[in-house]
Write a structure and sequence with these properties.
homotetramer; DNA-binding
Amino acid sequence: MTKKELKRESIIQAALKLFSTNGFHKTTIPDIAKSLGMSVGNLYNYFKSKDILAKEIIKYTSDILGDEIKKINMLDMSSKEKIRKIVELYFQMAKEKPEMIEYFLRVYLSHREVFDDGCEGMICVSSFVTEIMLFFDKGVEGGELRDQDFFSAFGLFMGYLGGMVFLKGESILPKDLDEYIDDISENIYNALKK
Amino acid sequence: MTKKELKRESIIQAALKLFSTNGFHKTTIPDIAKSLGMSVGNLYNYFKSKDILAKEIIKYTSDILGDEIKKINMLDMSSKEKIRKIVELYFQMAKEKPEMIEYFLRVYLSHREVFDDGCEGMICVSSFVTEIMLFFDKGVEGGELRDQDFFSAFGLFMGYLGGMVFLKGESILPKDLDEYIDDISENIYNALKK
Amino acid sequence: MTKKELKRESIIQAALKLFSTNGFHKTTIPDIAKSLGMSVGNLYNYFKSKDILAKEIIKYTSDILGDEIKKINMLDMSSKEKIRKIVELYFQMAKEKPEMIEYFLRVYLSHREVFDDGCEGMICVSSFVTEIMLFFDKGVEGGELRDQDFFSAFGLFMGYLGGMVFLKGESILPKDLDEYIDDISENIYNALKK
Amino acid sequence: MTKKELKRESIIQAALKLFSTNGFHKTTIPDIAKSLGMSVGNLYNYFKSKDILAKEIIKYTSDILGDEIKKINMLDMSSKEKIRKIVELYFQMAKEKPEMIEYFLRVYLSHREVFDDGCEGMICVSSFVTEIMLFFDKGVEGGELRDQDFFSAFGLFMGYLGGMVFLKGESILPKDLDEYIDDISENIYNALKK
DNA sequence: GATGAATGAGCTTTCATTCAT
DNA sequence: AATGAATGAAAGCTCATTCAT
């Protein structure tokens, strides 16, 4: 990685953090620059606009999540076990790098104006969606999961997990996320199994 | 309803529409006033700030959704059938009054700054959450649903349905929402049943 | 004239003065607002952008100049005498309201980017150009002026007068503008006469 | 010419082109550097500021135009013929190297702030003005042109030609510039002749 | 000579909110 | 209740210029 690439990534991470924590509109470019100890003008040498930065962040996040799920996909275990692994992964991320999951929920999901141009459909989250699709297809092929519309399954998976993290973020959940892993894995498995 | 209450509601509806369609920050108070043919100053006679208006809208929306679910709750039918009814209701709303569901997803969910003060926890959506809770408790009491943490069940319900409507809104779903009703109702039932 | 129209015009006049004196880019919106004792935001209630303001100014200026030439056109005198009247008018304006002529030369003429959209061709200066055209056509009809391409004549008139005012503005002319009236009127007449 | 002088000139030409085409303020130093394939920092080794570059360009342009008129001045022909030659030259330049004429009209003429310091009066265009003056004086000496104030004649010449090129640039002229040569030469001659 | 990342002041524009009428 | 002109802080973004390498 060149110096420039490293700096680019550090900007992405700083912005990811701020956008997730304080909201997209409440976070200003000077805020991001200041948090990095760099000047506003220089930040614009790396990303031509706030919107473009937002789009690069969702790709970055999707890639990282996708890579992690890929690792799970490559393991030699049942779909049931993989479901649990994915739930664990998701919640672990929500604890360790909450900004990534929050970014999905609070920035990507709800600022259509920003992502409409350049992230149509699922372009910017394809690396993540693809892995979920692979997981599901394998489970169906292996005869473990019921053969249903992919989106019915995808919506369940992502909506459910996202919903739980949202509830956690709102301080609504009485218990730690980890304590829901059993229930949720079971629910998802029951919903998808043959 | 007094004249004043009627006008209050018409403001809520106009703002709901605009916030959902164009985003919270992209919608200005003058925009709302103009769409109602009233003056900015007068609008402030009804709602003291944009944030307060946003909070009133989520309560209004939650009440309407809650009322509808209440009707379902009062029907004499199995939990399995009720699940289907709720899914149908949700998707029907998403089609007929998309602004309500979109408001949940695109405004309430993602502007913590706005709702933090006054809508802590689930205060502003309690009428809706309460009905889901009633549905779930009855199902458990009746021995039809597995006795699990309420939030595990609630997250599934709401995350799943919200997720599907989001996918639809992004033009990602290949089929009409209605065509997913069977799959989704079945998945939810399988996840929650004893 | 309503109060609002009066304010609109006062903005045009203030901006005209500043743009002409200090240049279009060197004049900021806060500069204009301050010179009027009004707020920046309120100025935008009258003109939606700096560019639009610039275009309204050229129309305003063109109208005023056009009206003055119209008065000359309606006089019952020879083309030779009218030429002198127009030269006098132009120089008088350059002395009394130098900002108008300067605006033509220093703002309109040289900021294509600004006027390209909305002032194509001569749209925004048509009231002025039209009167020059009328003057010329009458002179030709009356047999006093040579029948030549209008633009050959228009370029002479306007380029010449504009050029003189420019030279004056650059403090290049050793004498007062008035002292050139004889020479210039004669030159123009000699150039255009039959 | 040394290597350094060559590079200097190539910068002048690139900047001339860009300033004329896109405007002085719309053209950035990075734009110029990029069009030359050189670095911003290095460009500053040749010209200490954007304003200084702008002033060097007008001198450069004026020299080239002056040289061409000098050639005409040295020809053995009547003032009438020379006028035509000058008009032809001007229009030919406007066609072949439009950036030069445009630079006069759109940059030099209208950015007083830039040229005020260092190009007072006609310092930076003296090589061009001098030749026009020589042409005029010879014509007067030779008894062909009327003896009038030089600036009355100069304003006619330059304002007229500049005006025509401006009209052409605005796509207002219905015909090609060349087709106006006869009319314009005749008009100028009639205006200046004894 | 040559590079280009870095600076930061300054610009245009927006908009929630107020208040005199 | 109703109006809408007015406010002004704050946002996103630009760009001439510098300087460490």
